TrEMBL record:
It comes from Marinomonas mediterranea (strain ATCC 700492 / JCM 21426 / NBRC 103028 / MMB-1). Residues 12-141 form the Gfo/Idh/MocA-like oxidoreductase N-terminal domain. It holds the Pfam family GFO_IDH_MocA_C. InterPro entries: Gfo/Idh/MocA-like_OxRdtase_C, Gfo/Idh/MocA-like_OxRdtase_N, Gfo/Idh/MocA_oxidoreduct, NAD(P)-bd_dom_sf. One of its GO terms (molecular function) is nucleotide binding. Residues 154-388 form the Gfo/Idh/MocA-like oxidoreductase C-terminal domain. Transmembrane segments: none annotated. This is Oxidoreductase domain protein. Coiled coil: none annotated.
Length: 392
């Protein structure tokens, strides 16, 4: 079951930038962060519209004087208070992540930032350096990475049950934007605007999730990649609503990632399949409690979350919240990621970098790799789909 020792950690004073009324992902942050009493929401600049943000914050139980008009004022005033915020989550559109994260870090505040963490690799690496100089945690909200069966998959790879990894196929391909829905949907509209979304749409919006899961499960480094991207809804150009990325990994494995918003009829189809020389595993985010394990020459097995046969030393069990059999899902995954953020932020506050380094969490390097991958995908796709080295 869930490791209750985590719940004994000091409660962090937490704020949000963005995630306001009607936003897509603010509620998931609040559910994930506050579920274990590890984060208490005490301040916020919740909305681009200050008045709406204040009303919303007060409804959430935040004192009116700590519902700020903008993030600059919030960081300046909160960093002067004895009971000021320790950590902020940034759940605003992509174009704002770099400035807001930098401002928070320079005010001495730990950050959990949404993905993609920045527009460019240079900016992401600069943020990493600032966090390091100030002894702060910069986490990135790859919210699917808290699912227990993802960690079981990782454990099977680490314990060599698959043998040498040969193929990694990743996909996140939904159908919600098969038509030009952005005409009537502000949350979709900014995603198709390069000034707000960045150099990519589906690659950054959903491809980075599947890419991170592939990296987390296999630990394999990308050597080179080749990307093809296109906008089937023509008005979305230059941003893509569909992309395929072929990848070669350093150990000789190969892989493919399909990111799409025009996979008509599909809900999410976020699937990670890892093929080794002895066996394969497959995880699907719409059925997160199960992990398929297929050993060559034997019947396929469906491993179920919470069961005693999972690796008991591993996150697969210590993140289990409600026992086997009960359906568990999205908020539990987010809460598991937030619990990890609480562990490392408290450790950083105690100058215990050994714990930080020994603890898995989606850190700034995970964010950097997402941005590096996006830059390489764009470079490949926009140069006649040529192969490009993953690292310079
Ligand atoms: P959204 O458009 O639904 O909501 C954005 C919110 O930010 C709104 O409340 C808006 O008023 C507020 N905002 C905008 N600029 C602001 C500013 N300068 N100061 C304060 N508030 C501001 O967007 P969304 O879909 O919730 O996406 C937000 C971020 O979360 C994006 O980076 C997106 O990529 C990411 N996201 C991540 C996941 C995930 O699974 N991790 C899922 C969805 C979205």
């Amino acid at each position: 079951m869930f490791d209750d020792k985590v719940r004994e950690l000091p409660t962090l004073r937490w704020a949000m930038v963005g995630g306001g009324k009607g936003s897509q992902i603010g509620y998931a942050h609040r559910c994930g962060a506050t579920r274990d009493g590890l984060f208490r929401l005490v301040a916020g600049a919740f909305d681009i519209d200050p008045q709406r943000g204040r009303e919303f914050g007060v409804k959430l139980g935040v004192l009116p004087e700590r519902c700020y008009d903008n993030y600059q004022t919030m960081f300046a005033l909160e960093s002067k208070r004895d009971d000021g915020i320790n950590v902020v989550s940034i759940a605003t559109p992509n174009s704002t992540h770099y400035e807001i994260t930098k401002c928070a870090l320079l005010a001495g505040i730990h950050v959990v930032c949404e993905k993609p963490v920045t527009f460019t690799l240079k900016e992401a690496e600069e943020l990493k350096a600032i966090a390091k100089d100030h002894g702060l945690i910069l986490g990135v909200m790859y919210g699917y990475s808290g699912f227990q069966m993802v960690h079981q998959a990782r454990s099977l790879v680490q314990n060599n049950l698959l043998g040498e990894i040969r193929v990694i196929n990743m996909q996140f391909a939904h159908g919600f934007h098969s038509q030009e829905v952005e005409l009537n949907d502000p949350g979709a509209k900014w995603r198709m605007n390069p000034n707000i979304s960045g150099p990519t749409y589906v690659l950054g919006d959903i491809g980075t999730h599947a890419f991170y899961l592939g990296q987390l499960i296999t630990g394999l480094a990308v050597k080179k990649l080749c990307c093809s991207r296109q906008s089937f809804v023509k008005s979305r150009a230059p941003l893509e609503d569909n992309a395929h990325v072929m990848m070669h990994f350093e150990n000789g494995a190969v892989g493919m990632l399909w990111a799409s918003a025009v996979n008509a009829g599909s809900m999410h189809q976020q699937k990670i399949r890892v093929v080794g020389e002895k066996a394969s595993i497959e995880w699907w985010d719409e059925r997160p409690n199960q992990l398929i394990y297929e050993e060559q020459g034997k019947p396929s097995q469906v491993l179920e979350r919470g069961m005693g046969y999972l690796d008991s030393h591993d996150d697969a069990i210590s993140s289990d919240r409600i026992g086997a059999g009960h359906a568990e899902g999205f908020f539990e995954s987010w809460a598991n990621v937030y619990a990890r953020f609480a562990v490392v932020i408290n450790a950083a506050n105690a100058n215990d970098w050994q714990t930080v380094n020994a603890t898995w969490f989606p850190d700034v390097d995970a964010g950097i790799e997402g941005v590096r991958w996006l830059e390489r995908c764009v470079e490949s796709a926009d140069n006649d789909e040529k192969w490009v080295a993953y690292r310079e």
